[in-house]
Amino acid sequence: MSAWPYTVFTPILTRSNTHDGSTTPLACAPMLFPNFRATCSSPELQSCRFIATPSRLCYFRDDSRYALRAQVPAGLNRKEAEIYSRLAPERLPHHIAIIMDGNGRWAKRRHLPRIAGHRSGVAAVRSTVETAARIGTSALTLYSFSAENWKRPKGEVEFLMNLLRRYLKMELPTLMENNIRLQYIGRQHELPQEVQERMSWAREMTERNTGMVLTLALNYGSRTELVDCFNALVVEASRNGGIEHMKVDERSIARHLYTSGLPELDLVIRTSGEMRLSNFLLWQVAYAEIYVTETLWPDFRGSDLLEAVEAFQKRERRFGGLVGDNGHLL
User: Fold this and answer.
1) Together in a domain, 208 and 276
2) Residue 240 annotated among the catalytic residues of the structure
3) Which pTM does this prediction carry?
4) pLDDT surpasses 90 at 323
5) How far apart are CA 65 and CA 160, in angstroms?
């Protein structure tokens, strides 16, 4: 336990057994305390029975205030673990998408060139990706380079392409360590050839990983995605009896979107305080929750991701229906 900067306590909701006076554990709820001795002397815990193990200290207590919580995942730092301990693991979003905005403003406030903001944004990507994987997120999609970003100065675009190539090589060990599978959405064939080759290499290296799916949206625009989707529907119909037999419904559209195979989108996070979607996942966002933070992307970290998830869990998702007194959709 001395290796931890703080002690992990697991209060366990118990049931008293009248026949022998023993207790039966029913549920666990991890709590974080920075000081072991101060905690043990706290009136809150004086009536508790402690059980020590090599990795955590547990105590039994009959108190309905403690709801079911999972153990804090390994690898989270102290702040992340504190936030995670307030979450309901069974209600974590399966698919999170992030509009990574604010690199330019971050650099401008520091009187630095815009590319400094892009470079600093890599640390934000690393922290966010690792935290998302550690808490068991099924899919994380990052808006990395939009179809409209080609309008930026040539030097900035070239820097972004080179940064992408370096990122894919530099972060591969992190992806492998966290069992992350990498894929892409967008018109990849329009990217520079050397970038396409590096993308293919990184995707092949992670294709056998079975954990979180990390999707980088590159040369992506939701309108172009829908155009490509309907063109694919037409081509498919022409190969199967002609256009007159083409059937278009929500299922067929979803099957031809770039995101086919990914879970339904649950949460969209936008940094830098802007209140717009910027042509990102317009079809998929239909019933997703949207969370906007004033934090600029280079300052965003795993703890910010968990705060967004906490806000997500406080919302009532009705999907156009009504919620009954029991909290379930009618």
Assistant:
1) yes
2) no
3) 0.78
4) no
5) 50
